[in-house]
Design a protein that fits this description.
The protein is α+β, with helices and mostly antiparallel strands. Helix content is 27%, strand content 20%. The radius of gyration is 25 Å and the shape is elongated. Mean pLDDT is 77; it is low at 110-134 and 271-276.
């Protein structure tokens, strides 16, 4: 079916819904203006000419207009989306997308209709943590339950090392997840002694907000300038920022969870638990 034909059919369905409700285009115009005033959002209103244009398939209504139509016609927003060929379950269709840049993962607000009730979740994983888990699953695919228990989602912030973020590679491979202790947000001064077991992890790695994005790095702070020191094998250059104007410290990276040929490994970087666990499936 051609795109224009889809628009005409969707518009015709909207017209039939309006007529079934006994509303004229002028009535809908008036109601939309009242809704816009009530919600303090002028984008929710539209003219009767606009209604006619949508119903004849001239164009697709935008997000605000769709929300307004759904409320005025007593429909779910998903029903409006479906008229235009958008799946009802589009919010549940999560394509595997691995961002090229480093990201700070923030829990999203949980809606009752989207609550996670999977039996695969650990019994001690609280429902408010499942949206953060969803972000991890979106990027990595299935995540082993034993690994989830080791992460302890409620205790820290989490970050994702972008597929093109090589600042700390190979120590922190692109595509890894890191656990961030926000209480450790001051740069520790060296020198840092390295034992054979600690290696490069003896020096604190920080998760930083550089305003244009995020980055993981070793750091030095001197005379109001914070210098990001990449891993020597990464091929990246050092970068300096005015602190705290141009950079802030989210926290210290205490755990890295990485994928090595589809095996999941957890490396503890904090003082309490060092070393690598075995593969988790």
């Amino acid at each position: 079916m051609a795109r224009q034909e889809k628009l005409v059919r969707a518009g015709a369905k909207l017209r039939r819904i309006r007529e079934r409700l006994g509303l004229s285009a002028r009535d809908v115009e008036r109601l939309s203006m009242e809704l816009a005033v009530e919600r303090h959002n002028p984008y929710l209103s539209f003219s009767r000419t606009w209604i006619t244009d949508v119903e004849t398939g001239r164009f697709v209504p935008g997000s605000f207009k769709m929300a307004s139509l759904a409320e005025l016609y007593g429909l779910d927003l998903a029903e409006i989306h479906e008229l235009y060929g958008m799946s009802r379950d589009i919010t549940k269709e999560r394509p595997a997308y691995r961002p090229p840049t480093t990201q700070l993962l923030r829990p999203k607000k949980e809606s009752p209709e989207n609550e996670t009730t999977s039996d695969d979740l650990p019994s001690d994983l609280q429902i408010e943590e499942t949206n953060l888990l969803t972000g991890i699953v979106d990027i990595w695919g299935s995540v082993p339950v034993p690994l989830l228990r080791r992460l302890g989602l409620q205790q820290s912030l989490y970050g994702y090392i972008g597929t093109e973020a090589k600042n700390m590679a190979p120590l922190l491979p692109p595509g890894s997840f890191v656990q961030i202790d926000t209480k450790q947000n001051r740069i520790r001064k060296g020198p840092f002694k390295k034992s054979s077991s600690e290696s490069h992890f003896a020096r604190p790695i920080y998760f930083l907000d550089i305003r244009s994005g995020y980055v993981c790095s070793w750091c030095e702070l001197k005379d109001g300038m914070l210098t990001l020191i990449p891993h020597p094998d990464s091929g990246e250059q050092t970068r300096s920022y005015r602190y705290p104007d141009d950079v802030s410290i989210v926290g210290r990276v205490t755990t890295v969870t990485m994928s090595i040929e589809e095996e999941r490994y957890v490396v503890r970087l904090d003082d309490g638990e060092k070393g690598r666990s075995g593969p988790k499936k």
